[in-house]
Amino acid sequence: MFRMATLGMLLGMLMASCFTFCLSHQNSEFALTNPEKSSTEERERKETTAEEELDPRVLEVFHPTHEWQALRPGQTVAAGSHVRLNLQTGEREVKLQDEDKFRNNLKGLKKGKRLDINSNTYTSQDLKSALAKFKEGSEMESSKEDKARQAKVKRLFRPIEELKKDFEELNVVIETDMQIMVRLINKFNSSSSSLEEKIAALFDLEYYVHQMDNAQDLLSFGGLQVVINGLNSTDPLVKEYAAFVLGAAFSSNPKVQVEAIEGGALQKLLVILATEQPLTAKKKVLFALCSLLRHFPYAQQQFLKLGGLHVLRSLVQEKGMEVLAVRVVTLLYDLVTEKMFAEEEAELTQETSPEKLQQYRQVHLLPGLREQGWCEITAHLLALPEHDAREKVLQTLDALLATCRDRYRQDPQLSRMLVSLQAEYQALAALELQDGEDEGYFRELLGSINSLLKELR
């Protein structure tokens, strides 16, 4: 029994050994393996295969010509060939380099320079060096352009020093505006100057004083007072052109306006308008008066105190002065609306006592117009034949409506004139509509007439 048991144990151990040996030599398809280790081994196997494919000893050598040819995968080219990537087809193309360039590359190689086979072989240092040279080249190019431009400017224009020197040799002096105005004032004020020279000096001076700074410069050296005194001249032409200069200097220039009032310009202008003078002289004087009064409430106060409304009424009623009548009416309209706008602006800004508004409140223009008969004078000017004149009169009638409403209603001539003009402009407005003008000029005038008639009923 003991012997049988020993044989059984030996047999079992033998069978276990045989089973273990068989498992160790089993096919790998049925073996238990690690997935990660397997994939790594597969990747290494593929890379080894790819390296073998790229081995220069295995690749097919392509022999290029002087024409571009497509390079297939797995082909290689000899050193010195010109390779490019065709961006349209996506293929690499190759051809032989030009012999001269190839020789130059070989010479560079012999001198220790790296052979430039394709653009991908540039080092970072090469690129930096090339960029530095590019910047230097662009700076040199820009410098050349600047020098060329400066040379062109020098050819076209000469320095002011050269011009002054040349003018001095020709006895011609370059003057500033200030120097020119001083010279013109001296010419005008000189007793040795003829009438023609004085008029020419004033005519030239008017051109310069249109500029605000020049007008103030005229004031700074006393030239303004010289021109104001020219209004006292016995010659109508001198009065006319002196007023012409003053009108240009006063326009929208408060500093000059203040000095003109203090220099007695307002009184002198009113005297000329109140006396017998040529129409041309009165036109220029009225222009100067309008420039002095606009946007200057203090001057408007002085105008009323000096009887300015009476002077203008006499001027309008004077025979042959119909042209000036429209300008006078326009001035009155501007003064009335100017005060209204100042009051409206103060209400919008909620300022109860701004200095300018207080000055305007001291200008009692509307009562003066009513007292001196301007309601009737303005209404009768509708008889003027020009459409432009009628438009300005209608504007003034509307501006004076609150002050002159009862006077308008009591004036039968005004009612007849408005009805007549209504019929005339209805016909003209109809013609405008026929021509396709929905908002024509005559239609606007007709609207003003209809509005005024409605207010007077």
TrEMBL record:
It is found in: Endoplasmic reticulum lumen. InterPro entries: ARM-like, ARM-type_fold, Hsp70_NEF-Inhibitors, Nucleotide_exch_fac_Fes1. Residues 32-54 are annotated as: Disordered. It comes from the Eukaryota. The keyword Protein transport applies. Residues 141-218 form the Nucleotide exchange factor Fes1 domain. Keywords: Endoplasmic reticulum, Glycoprotein, Protein transport, Signal, Translocation, Transport. The keyword Glycosyltransferase does not apply. Residues 1-24 form the signal peptide. It holds the Pfam family Fes1. Residues 38-54 have a biased composition (Basic and acidic residues). Belongs to the SIL1 family. Required for protein translocation and folding in the endoplasmic reticulum (ER). Functions as a nucleotide exchange factor for the ER lumenal chaperone HSPA5. This is Nucleotide exchange factor SIL1.
